[in-house]
Amino acid sequence: MGLYATAMETIEAYTGLSPAAFFTISAAMVVVYKIVCSMFVDPEELDKKPIDARSSIATNQPAPQPQPPTIQEPVQLGDVTEEELRAYNGSDPNKPLLMAIKGKIYDVSGSRMFYGPGGPYALFAGREASRALALMSFDPRDLNGNLEGLSEHELEVLQDWEYKFMEKYVKVGQLVGTDQAVNGGKVEESEKHD
């Protein structure tokens, strides 16, 4: 009887509640916990072992291990027009995901969650995105390589993007037929002699 009396005195001393109120609140908390848990998981499912549908129960053979997705090496495309680049916008899962900055085409397939369909930057896939990146714009009208009218700061932003792409992605080609758009109408010295 001494243990029971000590427990009751301890409950009242530490909680400030009578033993009846303490046990009532404790029971209510357990019920609320069970109700909330049942909203997310069927209680019977917690006790079951997961069944692997791929394993053959009749033959007692282990299930085959899933193969990791194959990472394709970037394909070098060489010279590509803007129209040809649009085919690499992620709509065909068998094609790489490409985008261009300052006329250079990069394979961004490794970041499909960003540049692929439904990604936050999907708008840029398959496009020359220099102006949009310089302006930090998601306006489809800015998806081009026209650098005319950009401020010094915007050109620095674009240069930062280009450096990031050069570090992270493989250059697989270059846009052709867009010298005026990409270079703001100026032909660079290195291009004059080609």
UniProtKB/TrEMBL annotation:
> TM segments?
20-41
Q: Which GO terms describe its cellular component?
A: endoplasmic reticulum; plasma membrane
What keywords are annotated for this sequence in UniProt? Cell membrane, Endoplasmic reticulum, Heme, Iron, Lipid-binding, Membrane, Metal-binding, Steroid-binding, Transmembrane, Transmembrane helix
Task: Kindly list the places in or outside the cell where this protein is found, as annotated in its UniProt entry.
Answer: Cell membrane; Endoplasmic reticulum
For this protein, the record's Pfam families field holds: Cyt-b5 (PF00173)
SMART domains cross-referenced by the UniProt entry: Cyt-b5 (SM01117)
The protein's GO terms of the molecular function aspect are: metal ion binding; steroid binding
Gene3D superfamilies linked to this entry: Cytochrome b5-like heme/steroid binding domain
Q: Which residues form the Cytochrome b5 heme-binding domain?
A: 80-176
Similarity section = Belongs to the cytochrome b5 family. MAPR subfamily.
Against PANTHER family, the record matches this protein to: MEMBRANE-ASSOCIATED PROGESTERONE RECEPTOR COMPONENT-RELATED (PTHR10281), NEUDESIN (PTHR10281:SF72)
- Name of the protein: Cytochrome b5 heme-binding domain-containing protein
Which species does this protein come from?
A: Salix udensis
